[in-house]
Amino acid sequence: MGVALVATAALVTLPAPITATAADTPLSQGRTATSSSAENAGTPSQNAVDGDTATRWSSAASDDQWLQVDLGATASVTRVVLDWEAAYGKDYKIQLSQDGSTWTDAKTVTGGDGGTDTLDVSGQGRYVRLQGVHRATPWGYSLWEFQVFGTTGGTAPGGSCDTANAAQGRPATASSVENAGTPATAAFDGDTGTRWSSQASDPQWVRVDLGAVQDLCKVDLNWEAAYAKDFRIEASADGQSWQTLKSVTGATGGKASYDVSGSGRYVRVHGTARATGYGYSLWEVAVHTGTTGAPPVEGGGDLGPNVIVVDPSTPNLQQKFDQVFAQQESNQFGGGRYQFLLKPGTYNGINAQLGFYTSVSGLGLNPDDTQINGDITVDAGWFNGNATQNFWRSAENLAITPSNGTDRWAVAQAAPFRRIHVKGGLNLAPNGYGWASGGYIADSKIDGTVGPYSQQQWYTRDSSVGGWTNGVWNMTFTGVEGAPAGNFETGPYTTLDTTPISREKPFLYLDGNEYKVRVPAKRTNARGVSWPANAGGTSLPLSQFYVVKPGATAATINAALDQGLNLLFTPGVYHIDQTIEVDRANTVVLGLGLATIIPDGGVDAMHVADVDGVRLAGFLIDAGPVNSDTLLRIGTPGGNADHAANPTTMQDVFIRVGGAGPGKATDSVVVESDDVIIDHTWIWRADHGEGVGWETNRADYGLRVNGDDVLATGLFVEHFNKYDVYWSGERGRTIFFQNEKAYDAPNEAAITHDGIVGYAAYKVADSVNVHDAVALGSYCNFTADPGIVQHHGFQVPVKPGVRMRNLQVISLGGMGQYRHVVNDTGAGTSGTDTVPSKVVQFP
Predict the structure, then answer these.
(1) Is the peptide bond before 625 cis (omega within 30 degrees of 0)?
(2) Please, are residues 229 and 251 in contact by the beta-carbon 8 Å criterion?
(3) What is the widest separation between alpha-carbon atoms in the chain?
(4) What is the helix, strand, coil percentage profile of the chain, to 5?
(5) Torsion, Cα of 540, 541, 544, 548 (10° steps)
């Protein structure tokens, strides 16, 4: 149970016109705000807590609207200041909550007249809400600023603080006493008629011995007329080394209580400045103990050892890129992780070659803020010109003017190319046009022609290209200006004018000298890039993130989440012994440099609650050697909340089972929530590397979707022992799917079920009535038994609302075959010529 709320309801006619002092920073400033509605995209809830009196939140034009702020941790709230715009609330309430669900009225206002309302309140809560009752105008409710004041600290949610005084009657000493009638023990005897007083000089102290080290949660002070203006409350385990629990300046005497967090056997009140010409004098000091939990996790800080931040004047910059590339070029399953962050400016003569687990990103708000006159290069020299294993790397948020007019980005899966402006052409094939198997582009502008050449498949979303030439099997475009016309019957192209729903990935940038994370807004029926307008998004300061660095524990990560912090995983490999629990709406979990999470002991790696707007982006989950039930679960089983207005997104989140060593998981990703957007993932049961074998890296299912109205754009799922994708939610949609069946299926008997040989790559459950999927490909390469004939690539119920378009199955060099494309429809594959068998529409 959390700390009990203290409700002080009051009925007032007009709030007193008191304004907050400039030096008093609100607890609410920059925190996460949500609301019942927003008038338009230009007046979001976040505007009310941004500290800018020129921006505002406004609601829809109806009563019973609310705005709430998450303070990130339990706070003792003392004051709320409302700076109304012309559309103000006449009657409203200020409410407090520990969990964002159960609310207690802290103040009720009737007959408000707008302007600035300053309200004294008393209570504790993590969430503070303005609940509108009646508007004063025909418009909605509108606030320039919503400010919450008070103090944080004390007992953590789930802890308890004893009301008993642990110091009463305990031994006490002091730096001095005024006389024999005012000894140190008098401050701890439980008698408010006796006191300790010191000599009339600074500094002075009084301390108590609790007898043993205890958790400390609160200290009560009852000052006599001779009080301290400035003092510290301190704790010590040995009476020698002291830790400051609370530093107080400008105190006014009387009775005061201070929430603290720490432990010690000795507690000391250490006065540093007296308020009078006398000494320090205390009637009583009470010390309360209890379970306070761990000390608060601090937000912000440096970005750790494997983030390389550079600017155009950085000496030996090319050498830095070359050194990391030399280490990472062929380090496919190693532990190195690196992120280059390029400050805005112009970089001349740079060729940043990217190996495994290496990311390069610009730190501007827009790609054109970071200009590279040179290249960002991925090639396949390390693998004899074969690019099919160029996984796990990325480039984001910068502009490239290629040195020879065309940049080379020869990648396979899990290598996103986002928010890039290529001022020239883009070649997606390796030097020599060897094999290639990728890939993904989003929110990018390529002025010249994109040449995929040997690329077997590619998905491009919400971008602009000067042209597109060639392609092998599955080239898919949604919302791409300049995309080629669809020709799937005779060629590789599937083209949709717009993307039904999209939201770009969060990204780190510099606002002056301050790091922030930009969280872009949802787009509907998008076409073309989202920048430079970046309309409708929000920016979160780094102070609202726990910057996770190598060595961090799951307990600390979860404590940070419980405090209301977001997570920024810096490059590294993180072993966790408990599930990471993301329970708060709008939490951002962002990884740099392919940060990798490995669950130990069979725990699940991450659970996301059935809440609005969580953003998961830019990290890898690697299965541990003890079987996990589920590596990533989004939502809770049976959850059915509507998240259409603010869906959870999973972007550039990759899953690996085996390859770096033995790994097992029954399910890799399970989606229980409605309205989730899966935007580019590679969910992979390894077919090479270490710890690979039919049972060694056993993983039955890649993706299971139980939630309704889930959209997948850019879905890569491969090699699972049973179904790669199993979809049982209603109204699901997939745009682009790439799959290979498990290479190591030992024989037909091992994969026969329900009288069918082989598990479909993509199965829609028989119970589903509405489903829509387009541009899906499944390939077989049964190296353990090339005689396997899989019955079909796709299996769906035959119903009017289930629509499958542009499907293909392919036998890679005759290593096994497909009998049909979908259900019992579509010609089988045959021979060794690697020719697709297609179905344009089913049914």
Answers:
(1) no
(2) yes
(3) 105
(4) 5, 50, 45
(5) 110
Alpha carbon distance 797, 814 (integer Å):
29
- Active-site entry in 145, 329, 396, 740: 740
- For the stretch 313-341, pLDDT in tens is 999 999 999 999 999 999 999 999 999 99
pLDDT in tens, 74-110: 777 888 999 999 999 999 999 888 767 677 788 889 8
pTM of the model: 0.71
Predicted confidence (pLDDT) at residue 294 exceeds the cutoff of 80 = no
Residue 147: strand, helix, or coil: strand
- Joined together, the tokens standing for residue 336 give 């190195």
- Show the tokens assigned to 343: 């400050």
Residue 253's CB is within 10 A of a number of other CB atoms, namely 17
On whether the CB atoms of residues 408 and 381 are closer than 8 A, the answer is no
- DSSP secondary structure code for residue 557 in this structure: H
Torsion angle, CA of 759/765/769/770, rounded to 10 degrees? -60
Backbone conformation region of residue 320, classed left if phi is above 0, alpha if psi is from -120 to 50, else beta = alpha
Burial category of 641 from C-beta neighbours within 10 Å (exposed 0-12, middle 13-18, buried 19 and up): middle
262: nearest Cα among 221, 186, 302, 210? 210
Q: Are 162 and 144 in contact (CB under 8 A)?
A: no
Residue bearing tokens 């609207």? 65
Q: Is 740 a catalytic residue?
A: yes
Structure tokens at 207: 């301390």
Does residue 5 carry a pLDDT above 50? no
Distances (CA, A) of 37 to 11, 269, 614, 646: 27, 49, 18, 12
Across 99-103, 352-356, 397-401, 455-459, least confident range: 99-103
